[in-house]
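Page 47, continued from p. 46.
Same chain as before, 152 aa.
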Amino acid sequence: MRFLSPGGVHAGLAPAHPVGIWVGAVGPEAPAFTGRVGDGWAAPIPHYLPYEKWRASQDAITRAAEDAGRAPSGITRVAQLVGDITEEPGTVRLRGEKPVRADAAGWARVLADLATETGFDSFVYRPEGNGETQVRRWAREVVPAARTLLEA
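Result:
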């Protein structure tokens, strides 16, 4: 194997903050790997890892972290959610890979439940429809409502 070393290239300044290594992999060994060495886990969108497998993956990450002598709370847990914020309330059941379609209150309940029952502490929202309108609704309606639920 041959290695090349570019001349005149410098690494630059050190980061102003710690740089974490996050894992977003799917597979039977991915949660244990994340627990042993990862700083964060981005649960793959439900198309790749169905909602009903998120809890077991969280538990496997926690066990592997504990077995490695790491604090599981030091691993950031991110749920990536796909769907739309609707005007109509709806019953949300996180199963399979079905996108979430609910009003802001329904979305807030999903986030609160994922935080309290499934161990997620961060969320990424990917709208299906009009991205700008959906992201505005997420920021103005869903996030404040979820924070209120989580503070209660």
